[in-house]
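User: Please fill in residues for this 306-position structure.
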């Protein structure tokens, strides 16, 4: 059985179409199509049906895919073991990472530099973005996402709930009366990231009691670095994840508002995600463990600040 053809076939199924497989494998689309045709000819069976959306598996194709995926996986394990032996355990390979723009820029940047220094032979492909539809299709090995629940088709490690801080610049606090109650907060211009409808559902918790407040931000953006600039400029009260504003509060540039409450948006959690059937190299596994450890340390720092 042609291992290359099986690898191409698995890549097509995982990626959703021939063009994506061609890009992932650095091959021409015609070459990918040829290898699939040869595989179908050798098995005397139709494995894929072309559709306007891409391709779909036939019943026989589904069976072949499950076996092919295992073969490709075992082959990758063998290559990884040989590579590790040849390089005296030096980790190599390429890792595609997708992370939220704000968290990636404000928190993960130093982590990634640290990881790269420890493992110089690993290539990191870092994408700071807030949306991703298909990890395999987009060439992503590991994704960090903030969401109430992870998609059902991925393996997800819950890294903990996302805590938000209500804050204002020291300049704004000096010339404006800070809201003292949730009722006053409803009449305050709020800067945060907006939902798809332009409205934000905020949950304020105190002593086991929760109150949900919906509001329309006076300014909204999914780029937290930009939101941070807006808060510090003194145009309103900010509602942002604590990792965004904590250093500025410690530096005296910002103050916390209604500190007696714990705030959250949509009960969001942060998840580390990867595909369940995607082969994880030693480099990728090491990277996942590295990020998990860093997140654990971040949670410990957050708790020590309470």
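Assistant: Residues filled in for all 306 positions:
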């Amino acid at each position: 059985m042609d291992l290359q053809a099986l690898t191409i076939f698995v890549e097509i199924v995982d990626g959703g179409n021939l063009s994506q497989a061609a890009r992932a494998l650095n091959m021409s689309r015609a070459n990918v199509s040829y290898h699939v045709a040869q595989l179908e000819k050798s098995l005397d069976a139709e494995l894929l049906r072309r559709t306007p959306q891409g391709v779909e598996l036939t019943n026989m194709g589904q069976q072949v895919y499950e076996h092919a995926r295992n073969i490709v996986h075992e082959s990758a394990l063998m290559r990884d073991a040989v590579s590790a032996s040849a390089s005296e355990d030096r980790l190599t390979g390429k890792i595609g990472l997708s992370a939220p723009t704000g968290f990636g820029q404000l928190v993960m940047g130093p982590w990634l530099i640290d990881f790269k220094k420890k493992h110089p032979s690993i290539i990191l492909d870092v994408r700071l973005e807030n949306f991703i539809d298909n990890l395999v299709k987009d060439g992503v090995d590991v994704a960090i996402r903030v969401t109430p629940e992870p998609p059902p088709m991925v393996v997800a490690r819950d890294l903990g709930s996302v805590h938000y801080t209500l804050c204002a610049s020291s300049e704004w606090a000096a010339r404006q009366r800070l809201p003292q109650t949730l009722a006053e907060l409803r009449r305050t211009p709020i800067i945060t990231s907006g939902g798809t409808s332009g409205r934000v559902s905020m949950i304020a918790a105190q002593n086991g009691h929760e109150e949900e407040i919906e509001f329309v931000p006076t300014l909204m953006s999914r780029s937290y670095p930009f939101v941070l600039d807006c808060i510090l400029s003194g145009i309103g009260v900010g509602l942002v994840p604590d990792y965004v504003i904590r250093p500025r509060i410690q530096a005296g540039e910002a103050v916390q508002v209604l500190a007696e409450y714990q705030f959250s948006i949509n009960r969001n959690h942060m998840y580390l995600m990867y595909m369940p059937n995607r082969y994880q190299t030693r480099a990728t596994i090491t990277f996942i463990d590295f990020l998990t450890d860093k997140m654990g340390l971040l949670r410990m720092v957050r708790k020590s600040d309470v």
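For context: The mean pLDDT is 83.
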